[in-house]
Design a protein that fits this description.
mainly alpha; single chain; 9 helices
């Protein structure tokens, strides 16, 4: 896994679209810069969205960490880097929502068992303390995370793309619920960004799968 310094270094990086280069990713405005100011005005749907999306993003970052180290395809590695650079800062943004709303970060501290039975000593604080509930759309089970961690070569690449596509579809479903039921302009702006970014990445992953 990448160390805390590596993840911290990318917190200012924005999210690029499916054709974006590393340069484009570094020049994209951050979510914090483009989202409405966070106020205390929110409802239960906003709180539920953030409480669920934080661990959902944390698992995606964990999967991306694995792909950066284990993928054999350079395009898969590049995609994983962009996912990590986008979703790590979004975790911190959502933590900021909870602080502004006066809401606690609920849920038990994550353990190795709840995050796939892997060693996470090198993970950043942004993801290593996140619980990994399995009852939300697109979340991988501990067994699936172990299988991904044990895969190699092209098998890993295909498994990562298939799993991340499912994961992204789940995040889009959650974000659509937030748009329909949420009240906070900042949370709804983030939900819209998640839909746009992850739908673009789904298209990219489907194209990559067709070449493997």
């Amino acid at each position: 896994m990448l160390g805390a310094a590596a993840v911290t270094a990318v917190l200012v990086a924005g999210c690029s679209d499916s054709t974006g280069s590393a340069t484009a990713a570094s020049t994209t405005p951050s979510a914090a810069a483009t989202s409405p100011a966070v106020s205390a005005d929110h409802n239960a749907a906003d709180t539920a969205f953030v409480h669920d999306m934080i661990p959902h993003h944390a698992q995606a970052v964990e999967m991306a960490d694995m792909a950066i180290q284990q993928a054999s395809n350079a395009q898969v590695k590049q995609l994983a880097t962009r996912i990590q650079q986008a979703q790590g800062p979004e975790i911190e943004q959502m933590r900021g929502f909870l602080t502004a709303w006066g809401e606690p970060e609920t849920g038990p501290t994550a353990t190795s068992g709840s995050m796939g039975g892997m060693d996470h000593s090198g993970m950043s604080q942004a993801t290593s303390t996140m619980p990994m509930p399995q009852g939300m759309p697109g979340m991988m089970t501990g067994q699936q995370m172990q299988q991904l961690g044990q895969a190699t070569g092209a098998d890993f690449d295909r498994m990562f793309l298939q799993m991340m596509t499912e994961h992204h579809n789940g995040a889009i479903q959650m974000a659509q619920t937030e748009l329909a039921e949420g009240q906070s302009p900042a949370a709804k702006a983030l939900a819209q960004k998640i839909i746009q970014d992850q739908q673009s990445e789904i298209t990219e992953m489907q194209n990559l799968l067709s070449t493997l």
